[in-house]
Every structure is written in C-alpha cells, then in structure tokens.
Amino acid sequence: MTVEDPPGPYLDGFERILTDAATTGRRLTRDEIQSRRDLGAQAAEAGHGWRTLVSAHLTAARGGWPRAATPDSVLSIVEQAVDAFADGYEHAQRLVVRKEEAARREFIDDLLHGRGDPGRLAAHSERFGLRLSRAHAVAVAEGPEKYDETDAVPRQVASELFARFENRRILFTTKDGRMVCIAPGDQDDVLTHFAEHAHAATGQAQVALGRPRPGAVGIGHSYQEALNALDVAQRMGLDEPLLRAADLLVFPVLARDRQALMDLVRNTVGPLEQARGGAQPLLDTLMAYFDTGCVAAAAARRLSLSVRALTYRLERIHTLTGNDPADPADRYTLQTAVIGARLLDWPTRPL
User: Mapping DSSP to helix (H, G, I), strand (E, B) and coil, where does residue 305 land?
Assistant: First the structure.
C-alpha cells in the first residue's frame, strides 16, 4: 500500500475532525478519540503497517489543512488523533500476539503429547514452520534451571539456531522448563547445533535426541523418547552432554517388564544387602568395574581404592551372590542386574 493509495477507510472522519477542532481551537471530544481508537484497532486487525498509516494521516492533514487554523492548532489535533489511533492499533496488536502465542502453545502441546486431530495439526503446521508430511526428530535440553521462552538462555539459543538455519523448517520452544527443538529427521546438523549451543549457554545442559518419526504422532513419540533418554541418563549416572535415544534402546527394553526386572535384581544382587554397610558400596564397585571395561586398576582409581581393596570387594560379591564378576557368563547376569538396579533406583527404593 502506498501514500498515493492510502488506507482510506481507517481515516474516516479524520479531515472533518481536523477542520472543526483546529478552526475552533478545541481538543478532541471523548467520542472523537474513541472513534480514532476503534479505527486504529481495525487497521491493526486488517494487517496494515504502522508506517503506512502514519504517512496516510500526514498526507490527509496536509491535503485538508484548514486555512483559518493556526499551525499549532492543526498539529495539536493531528497529534491527538494519531495518538488515539496508535493506542487502538497497539492494543489490537497485543491481542493478536497473545492469541497467536496461545494458538502456538496449543499446537505445540498437542504435537508433543500426541493429542488433537492429525489432519488439523497438519493444516496448522505450515503456519508454525513445520511440514508434517516429513519425518521429524525432537531434541530436548535439560539445564540446571527451568526455562521459559522469555528467559535469556532460551533466547540466546534460539537466536544462534535461527541465525545459522534461517531457511530451515524448524521449531524452537520451551516445555516444562526444558528447551525443545523440532527439526526434519534428515537434518541431524540442526539438532546437534542446538545441542552444542544449549550446552554452551547453560554450561552443563544435557541434550537428548529422539529418533526420527513420521507424521504428527511421530513427533510426540520422538519427544517421549528424548525425555526417556534424559531419565535413563539420570538413573544410570550418564553424564554425556549429548544422548541419542537410538543408543539407549536396551534400557527401555529392560524396564518394559518391571516385575521381571525386579525379580532379576532381587535374586542376583539382592544378597549384597547382607554386607557390612549394605548393598550400595558393593553395587558401586560393580558399576565402576563394568563401566571401566572390567579393568580392576581403572575401577580402583575411579573409586579411590587400592587394587587390593577392589579385588577384596569383587571376591565378597562372588561369595554373597554366587556370581563371579570375572567370569564371562556370570558377568552378563551381574551387569544386567546392575543396570536394572540403576533403573529401579535400588537400593535407595525398596523393591
């Protein structure tokens, strides 16, 4: 829209008000101010730019300048009219932004939690930067604090992300205090870039990547995989900054039959509770031993023990459980039971 072709309907009555008020030297009446506010709101809702609207008012004032009025009087009326118009325009814009944000949050919530009609989600996805005909993957970053999109850290991460990938169809948001990035499943560089900057911005964020999944429902599944990976990392003491759900599939498989896992833990490492000091020190010994590839010297250093003390603990484990950590067959049973103990938070939580 140009100044030569002004948004006429939104200036309705402006020249009449200008002529009458400027000639008499009076201020705008309450009804006149309200009429300007109403027209400003209508212009905002119609999507007209503010610069165009101001230019249109100035052009109309110049064309309808009352000859009998002083410049100060004319400019005072123009100022009052434009100020009221701006008030209505800004108020309407704030309402539009709030409605748009509410619609965006509803869309994201439905998408991540697998709610809503897939057809409706697909219809709205383009509006929010996604194309649901493609497979997508979800990355979730959990930092030392809970974040909202208005906080400095998420704004920094989002700025870095969109500066690098401004032409990609990606979505960034926060959910339950975590930062979330959704990207096409074949664009792993987007998600790893998000992970790097989330970790850098927080200093210690851990980021989990769900597997690429097709459709609207697939995004919800990928999101849940990422959350589960973060939960597994916490239970298992995994401190890697980047976790891939595809690399951790053994853990949800083990946890799927909870009763069977409880029986395995109870029967295999449950006897460790008979040791002096309880099961935890010996369970920590097994964890360190397996995490270091069953290298006694490395496990001893991790536990701040002598190799002799570590060897004694391993022998004590063999005596109590009947399983020898140094024997390949027994080692598999013990290691699976240790993983199960971590997933079940045993012995902190009773079985």
Answer: coil
